[in-house]
Design a protein that fits this description.
Layout lengths: L4 E12 L2 E12 L3 E5 L6 H9 L6 E6 L2 E2 L5 H6 L2 E4 L11 H9 L5 H14 L1 H4 L11 H13 L5 E5 L7 H16 L3 E6 L2 H7 L2 E6 L2 E7 L5 H9 L7 H8 L9
Parallel strand pairs: 3-8, 3-9, 6-7, 7-8
Antiparallel strand pairs: 1-2, 1-4, 4-5, 9-10
Helix pairs in contact: 3-6, 6-7, 9-10
Length: about 260
């Protein structure tokens, strides 16, 4: 693995039975950098997240985390090595309070002082949670549940966070708030893989971009060398009518007819 690369993925293939979800996916994530993974629904984005974090076992390929092969390891071992996965759908325990959700994550820490410091960091980063400690997680707003999910993963300071569709089902202003917190995570020196349907939002914070289409890499490169429109053009191809719905999903905006 080249110097400065925290994560190096080569030839990753994931199958669900006879169906291929990922085929030959390769990329790197530099230490302290942000990789945006974009693509329409069904492109393989969440399958990629699950394979990297050990929730599904890849059929073949290599996943090197700071020089250590983790492909095929169980999820709890990968988490202990510093790779945290915030899955799509607000992965919190709805019947438990905010405090108890955070305590569930403290189990990774061995000493009481370490647990106290981790809780203090989480509440400093997400002060709204400090005002909701006795509230059931299911009664939080969608944005607050996303923040709780992220806070739980940050209790044990990770080296790499995979944020899978944190904007799912949220209003634009709430999405802005969630992404502000992601930027604060990056400021701590944590690397990020941000999986997102909305290209413009992903490009705004990314160093590198990986565009998936039907389980393969359709394009990859520096975020500064592309635009949302360029990625849409690469994804759509010449038949804009056939793929108009997919374009809307990727850009976050409806396709507009040309003006005369």
């Amino acid at each position: 693995m080249s110097s400065g690369q925290l994560l190096s993925v080569r030839g990753l293939q994931v199958n669900y039975g006879a169906a291929q979800a990922l085929t030959g996916v390769s990329f790197d994530v530099g230490a302290g950098s942000v990789l945006a993974v974009v693509g329409a629904n069904g492109a393989g984005k969440s399958s990629l997240a699950r394979a990297l974090s050990g929730l599904v076992q890849p059929r073949s390929g290599s996943v090197m985390l700071d020089g250590l092969e983790v492909a095929g390891m169980p999820a709890h071992r990968i988490r202990r090595l510093g790779l945290a996965h915030v899955p799509e759908g607000r992965a919190v325990f709805g019947t438990l309070t905010v405090r108890d959700n955070l305590r569930m994550s403290q189990r990774w820490l061995k000493t009481r002082p370490a647990r106290g410091e981790a809780l203090e960091r989480a509440l400093e980063m997400f002060p709204v949670l400090g005002r909701r400690l006795g509230q059931r997680a299911s009664t939080l707003s969608g944005g607050e549940q996303q923040m709780l999910s992220l806070a739980c993963e940050l209790m044990v300071t990770p080296r790499l966070v995979i944020a899978d569709e944190l904007s799912f089902g949220l209003a634009p202003l709430i999405i802005d708030d969630v992404y502000e917190h992601l930027l604060r995570v990056r400021e701590l020196g944590v690397s990020l893989i941000v999986i997102e349907q909305f290209i413009q939002r992903a490009l705004a914070m990314a160093d590198q971009v990986l565009l998936l289409r039907r389980g393969t890499v359709a394009w990859a490169g520096p975020a500064g060398q592309t635009t949302a429109d360029d990625l849409l053009a690469r994804y759509i191809g010449p038949d804009t009518q056939q793929h108009s719905t997919e374009a809307e999903k990727l850009s976050g905006e409806p396709n507009k007819p040309p003006t005369n």
